[in-house]
Design a protein that fits this description.
heterodimer, A: 401 residues, 9-stranded mixed beta sheet, two-stranded antiparallel ribbon, 37% helix, 19% strand, B: 142 residues, disordered N terminus
């Protein structure tokens, strides 16, 4: 396998854009990434694009096969265009497909792009197929919304390891100031613990401000072979590890949007996340103590603590302890988390979110994050995403090969 | 196969739940080889060690009793087509069954809940239409 680097990142700001299509937002992200990489569209040899999920409401087939219309707007050059999805884990999944395309030697310059318009609410079933759409069946029979699943996991965590209401609020508070200085973020403001705890309870024990909003947004990342990366006039950020994992049979965590989970002794909860980080450490040769910067999939405060625990690899509750001492603060902490404000600050544009994480890490690792730049020296950074049905992707980026 | 309806209501999704002569039951499948219970029913055993052979899987009716693994009080209702005349807030729980499966479902009450408390399966009314009550499985704390 060849060495692969990120040489360009671009993003359409996160927000709510009812009058823009996903196609045009995707084009804007690619244009910015090309400018960043000092490349032309004609230099791009392949595109890996995210398939939007909620097509019943928006843009239909053109959003599901988004790479085609985006390439058509850029100007058709006949290159391979692949569309794929992994729900919230899509962004990093696209990056992995692009990585493998370059690492294998098939192509030298590949764009991963995802555009998503999820602003305005909770995700609902995509069909009324009462026989085979189990998402629809779940909806009719239980009325359980996605954050409800997270809330139930959260209550159990509070019981088992002593996570407090304040810890959950701190997860929101910690990355707030960083979002203020991030032009790509949607909710650019800081919060206090009191403010978070005073926000309406949505799914007990999670408050409104502890659950991410849904947003519109698009991001693009350009990967290149080491040879090309050294030629372009930008500091290469090396992909040191990139992994995808799915749930293991017997993992007891009951996943959105399913109705059950088979429990087998000895199989850990969040098995896919554990598998994913294990692969990341093996591939990159780094350990949690070498990590300088972390992006967690903070779809909720529960996600924040559980993913941070898994990345740090310590005893359960390591994340809460770090939060309490201020260690996760992007500007002052010893282990900065969410340096661009995280999912909490952007709201989740489902399939594009993983690429926005990469955008942030690359910007930080290059030292180009302006007022939100993490002051300590950054060498290695980790991002992880969380997807429906128990799938998980993550990557390790580094300034050094 | 049990009758899909009874005077106690029509299941909102009949293939996954029924209220039979012995009381309400979830309808799933069980593997004859490894005894894995799947809910809803699956055509094949989901254990990677088992052959994907339809003949290995038999119908399973169960869920009468379990233990409340966790719950939440949902302050906002799921949007239509979910229909629940009682409205929000309502409690949703995850219940561990002795067969080794965790199952999602509405709870019959929102107060006096405790982790690991025993619960039993009941048929609960979501709404009423011209045919009478339309029901789903719910967990009732014991």
């Amino acid at each position: 396998m060849r060495d692969v680097a990120v040489i360009g990142v671009g993003a359409h700001p996160w927000g709510a854009y009812p009058d823009r299509s996903m196609t045009e937002m995707g084009v804007e992200a690619i244009v910015e990434a090309l400018e960043d990489a000092t490349l032309e569209w004609r230099d791009v040899e392949a595109v890996v694009a995210g398939s939007y999920l909620w097509t019943r409401d928006r843009e239909g087939l053109f959003a599901f096969m988004s790479g085609g219309p985006i390439a058509a707007q850029m100007g058709l050059t006949g290159i391979p265009v692949v569309n794929c999805t992994n729900a919230s884990a899509t962004g990093t999944t696209l990056l992995r497909e692009a990585y493998l395309t370059v690492a294998s030697g098939a192509h030298d310059i590949v764009v991963a792009v995802a555009s998503d318009k999820s602003a305005g609410g909770l995700f609902t079933p995509m069909s009324e197929d009462i026989q085979f759409d189990l998402d629809y069946v779940r909806w009719l029979t239980t009325g359980a919304i996605s954050p409800g699943y997270w809330a139930m996991e959260c209550r159990r965590r509070m019981h088992e390891i002593g996570t407090t209401e304040e810890d959950l609020a701190l997860a929101k508070v910690s990355s707030g100031p960083a979002s203020v200085a991030n032009p790509k973020a949607r909710f650019r403001r800081a919060f206090s613990v009191e403010e978070v705890l005073a926000s309406p309870m949505v799914v007990d024990p999670l408050h409104l401000f502890e659950i991410c909003a849904t947003s519109d947004g698009a991001a693009a990342v350009i990967l290149a072979s080491g040879e090309v990366a050294r030629r372009v006039n930008r500091p290469p950020i090396w992909v040191k590890g990139i992994a995808l994992a799915s749930k293991i049979f017997g993992d007891p965590s009951l996943r959105t949007p399913t109705l059950s989970a088979v429990i087998r002794p000895g199989v850990p909860a969040m098995s896919e996340a554990w598998s994913c980080v294990e692969q990341l450490w093996q591939q990159s040769g780094i350990t949690p103590s070498d990590v300088d910067l972390i992006e967690v999939p903070d779809n909720s405060s529960w996600h924040y603590v559980v993913y941070l625990d898994i990345i740090l690899g310590g005893e359960p509750g390591t994340a809460e302890a770090l939060l309490r001492e201020g260690g996760t603060d992007p500007l002052t902490g010893r282990m900065p988390v969410g340096a661009g404000g995280g999912v909490a600050g952007s709201g989740e544009a489902t399939i594009a979110q993983g690429l926005l994480q990469i955008h942030e890490l690359v910007t930080q690792l290059r030292g180009e994050a302006g007022d939100r730049q993490v002051p300590k020296r950054l060498r290695s950074a980790v991002a992880m995403t969380y997807g429906y049905l128990g799938n998980n992707s993550g990557c390790v980026l580094s300034t050094e090969l | 196969m049990e009758r899909l309806t009874s005077n106690r209501g029509r299941p909102v999704v009949p293939q996954h739940f029924f209220d039979g002569p012995d009381g309400p039951r979830l309808r799933g499948t069980r593997c004859r080889s490894c005894e894995t219970v799947s809910f809803p029913a699956t055509p094949f055993c989901t254990n990677p060690a088992c052959p994907k052979d339809r003949a290995l899987v038999e119908e399973w009716h169960g869920g009468e009793r379990g233990v409340l693994w966790s719950w939440t009080i949902q302050q906002i209702p799921a949007s239509p087509p979910f229909r629940f005349d009682q409205g929000a807030p309502y409690a949703v729980g995850m219940v561990d069954l002795p067969e080794g499966i965790r199952v999602l479902g509405l709870l019959t009450r929102m107060t006096d809940l405790q982790l690991d408390m025993p619960v039993r399966l009941v048929s609960g009314t979501l709404f009423e239409d011209e045919s009478g009550p339309v029901v789903t499985w719910m967990w009732q704390p014991e």
